[in-house]
Amino acid sequence: MGHTEAWQCQLAHSANINRLESGGWVPALSTWAGHAEAVATLLWMGTEVDGADAEGCTALQAAAWGSHKDMVELLLEASTQVDEVNVAGHTALLVAATMGHKAVVSALLFWGAAVDRVDPEGWTAQAVAAVQGSTAMAQALLAWGLDEKHCDTWGWSLLHLAARDGHCPCLCLLLESCPALDCCSHEGHTALTTAALHGHHPATELLLHYGADPNLCDAEG
């Protein structure tokens, strides 16, 4: 008996398909996260798609974390809230970007996920891509818009984040889209000084090539 048939058999004898496990999950959506056909059957039979487990993780975020694109799309078709956050303040888009699941990120964006939604530290999915140096991910996210003036809670822009770790391909992509070249962090550091302080000479040269001002001083002069 296949996965879908097994669940259909169990559901046929079940009094409550939305009964929660001790951890807070609807069993159907947690056990079969990744078996899109089974999940489609469960959703058709009325399984709850909203709500979270005991740790505040929704079914959509679990599917995004596991790179289950088909399940993500099924949940969104069933009217799951695309920008619902978990207890850490993360949306499914931020979860998928953190895990590097570009196909899931693209699906979530297609379904209206807010590309500029921030977590409690002021990070967006674009910030995650900049930190990871994921050019493909950054490119997919930038296609849906960019707030060039946005900074995290430390005043770090996307350029700061990419420059800090010397991610030149990602940095180059951002420089093509982000005119706010010399914005300063709360400590007064530009992306250029950030790259230089961390010893990333190629990133430093790249920023200079794009016109970063080498004469700007930080908070200590």
UniProtKB/TrEMBL annotation:
ANK repeat segments: 55-87, 88-120, 187-219
Keywords, alphabetical: ANK repeat, Repeat
Lineage: superkingdom: Eukaryota
Pfam families hit by this protein: Ank_2
InterPro entries linked: Ankyrin_rpt, Ankyrin_rpt-contain_sf
PANTHER family tied to this protein: ANKYRIN REPEAT AND PROTEIN KINASE DOMAIN-CONTAINING PROTEIN, INVERSIN-A
Protein name from the UniProt record: Ankyrin repeat domain-containing protein 50
Species the sequence originates in: Anas zonorhyncha
